[in-house]
Amino acid sequence: MNLLWKFCIEFVILLPLTNTLSIIPTLNRNPIYSNSLCNQNFTIFNNPLIPRILGNTDTLQICHDIENAISYESQVFYLYDPRYYDDIHHYSISSTNFSVCSVEPGTTNDLAIIMKIIGKNRVPFGIKSGGHSLNPGFSSTKDVHISMLRFSQVNYNPTDQTVDVGPGLVWNDVYKQLQPFNVSVLGGRVSNVGVGGFLLGGGYGWKSNQYGLSIDTILEYELVTPNGTIVNVNNQTYPDLYFGLKGGLNNFGIVTNFKMRALPQTLVYGGVLLYDFLEINNILNAAVNFQHNNQDPKAQILCDFTSLGGSVAINIIAFYDAPTAPPNTFDIFTSIAHLGKLQTRSFLSLVQASPVVITENMRGRFHTISVSNISKPVVEKVRDLFIEYTLASIPYGRTLVNFDVEPFLPSYFEKSQGGAYPHSPSNPLFPIVVQFGWQSELDDQVFINATQTVAEAILEAAIQDGQDLSGSKEILYPNYALDNTPLIKMYGKNLDRLKSIRQQWDPENIMYLTGGFKF
């Protein structure tokens, strides 16, 4: 069966004569990430995978059952529909799965119906918000795929200074809609990250020095539980469940609305400073000095080391939460020869200016390390590993090596409101992010091993520096963690309580039918 369809999208999907699938970029692809769509030909070749998708009669019948049970405000899409591809598409192709159908629930009631059908039939399912997870199967499936795209509300409530945010958005959309009201919420720092997964994992943002993590600003969740019940969860109605949702990922059901604190938002000051590789030592010293000397909660930076396809970029993303920054705030960075400038701009403009690593049509993984001090020995180890793995990746063609150092004020965990993800004032931690991207599925294990090895080496450097990261003191951020990370490393002493809450709300283990870290 050879099928040729004309779709409005930017890549060609080829299903080879194996049980795997690959997504290969077109030769004229623009390397700049874009959500725009263009007319391209999709050719789906005859192979054993097509009958599996189209002919999985059990799951296909469940898709039809869902289609017949939901209202006109929701919809089910199949392989032959262009919307299907938008729904299943992920930031990394190694996270994309071809499901039997894709479901776009448009109302909470319809999602409750869908969950009841899924639970009754014990069918595997995936839940996708923005599709930014690099762990395969965490937000995708080969069976019933649920896209939260239609939960796209951004409602500012000036009376109680809250914002209702839907999980189907990316943060650009949220900031753009709130901009006219001069308010914002504590969300993502770069473009095109999805709301749902980000908020369910914890949420490090540009305002974290001032307000903590995103979960410290969420007042209520609207949740469809695993058995299809709709509940509004806050610290008064269901305190244990509220605790679990604050960093506990998708273990307790599907969130359809996040009620967050509205935060005042003026113009901000900042931008991206780009440096020559020869300045790498000066940048490292500046980042360490900034971490140790900055005491202004409105000032924050990200220190980013990236090599992509042979090109190396070192940049500082600087943020100050006011139209101008006090003198000398970022002089330690602007005094080093650079391209780019810091300027007064909208908050949305700063987020959009942040470089998004271009790994569309690449495979990839994240991992993370948490340190208690961004010290010189730690950042020097980051530098050495970055150089080593940039050179080691050259034989593998177009690859990505990306390490991020994220300094915060040591006091930023003092804003903690508790929750599943441990962030105690007594144990402030600073995440370092490791990301690799590559082209061939044959190289998966090489780069997965590299991701793990780099993280372990940075952790060892921190320990050798005298940092006490033993036991529950080294808590890893779930949204950055590699898929084989033990739960105890992310949740520490909270793990037993979280297992008990999950058992109470999901005794039939419905959420075990979907991907992600499971209690």
TrEMBL record:
GO terms for molecular function: FAD binding; oxidoreductase activity. SUPFAM superfamilies: FAD-binding/transporter-associated domain-like. It holds the Pfam family BBE. It comes from the Eukaryota. InterPro entries: BBE, FAD-bd_PCMH, FAD-bd_PCMH-like_sf, FAD-bd_PCMH_sub2, FAD-linked_Oxidoreductase, Oxid_FAD_bind_N. Residues 93-265 form the FAD-binding PCMH-type domain. The keyword Membrane does not apply. Residues 1-20 form the signal peptide. Keywords: FAD, Flavoprotein, Oxidoreductase, Signal. Belongs to the oxygen-dependent FAD-linked oxidoreductase family. This is FAD-binding PCMH-type domain-containing protein. It comes from Adineta steineri. The lineage of its organism: Eukaryota, Metazoa, Spiralia, Gnathifera, Rotifera.
